[in-house]
Amino acid sequence: MKAAGELLEGMLYEMHMHTPLCNHAHGEPEAYAAVAEARHLGGIVVTCHNPTNDGWSPTVRMAVDEFDDYVALVATARQTWAGRVDVRLGIESDYVPGQEAWLEQLHGMADLHHVLGSIHPQLPQYQERFLNGDPVAFQRLYFEHLALAAETGLFDTLSHPDLVKNAFPAEWDVMRIFDSICSSLDRIAAAGTAMELNTSGLNKAIAEMNPGPQILQAMCQREIPVVIGSDAHDPRRVGADFETALKALTEAGYTHVSNFLDRQRRDIPIDLARALLHAPNNGE
């Protein structure tokens, strides 16, 4: 059994996963940790959907008065799995212009290790506010919001950064709005915010990771760091398709993948991460 500090060096983490408190995920953090151990991951960062104080999409997230329960849930799992899987507390926070003050307050309410910034264009409230009947304009606005999210400085990583392609898949043509995408990526790079390669996209209407290869390559050209997450809402999804993700990163030109712990980025050579995924019992 390894000490907690030893688990950090060179290990790949699951950086995006949920709990039942969001009302659409299954399994306690201990179950997610068990799968992480079986799949030779060093740790998990639990990133359940943030509570909001203004009634934003309340059915798919914890309530404000459940936040302490969330912190305690992750702390229990961390204690249970100490020395085997490094369990850390994070959060996935929805970004919409105007929510900055609340998110700053929320992120100061606990010692978070990874803060994902997310825009969920499929939410009815998001579409009611920002969809004017033109799906292409909606896609361009989504990428404007991604850049604004990075520029707030509130987030370590932007999650599933082309999720909008699944809102109106028949209207998606990445090259049609590539100018807007590249402008957004320029601003994200200038802000120093990382981005996520989310493997759950393989199971969506457009069956490719979020982001797809063209955007991933453009991110690499701008030296934007990348974390990998499965967006697990069920323990069986922990670490899903991580080897495919590492291959996609290599093909895009990346040599390193990142974790966030203590809100500090830690870079791992992709070759090492790949080797550790194949090492029995994490190399013990």
- Count of helical regions: 10
Query: What's the number of domains?
Result: 1
Span between termini: 8 Å
**What is the radius of gyration?**
18 Å
Q: Which structural class is indicated by helix and strand composition?
A: alpha/beta
Mean pLDDT: 95
Secondary structure layout:
Layout: H1 4-8, E1 13-14, H2 29-38, E2 43-46, H3 67-80, E3 86-94, H4 100-107, E4 114-118, H5 124-130, H6 135-152, E5 157-158, H7 178-191, E6 194-198, H8 213-221, E7 226-229, H9 242-252, E8 256-261, E9 264-269, H10 270-277
Parallel strand pairs: 1-2, 2-3, 3-4, 4-5, 5-6, 6-7
Antiparallel strand pairs: 8-9
Helix pairs in contact: 6-7, 8-9, 9-10
Salient structural properties:
seven-stranded parallel β-sheet; 37% helix; two-stranded antiparallel ribbon; 10 helices; 284 residues; alpha/beta
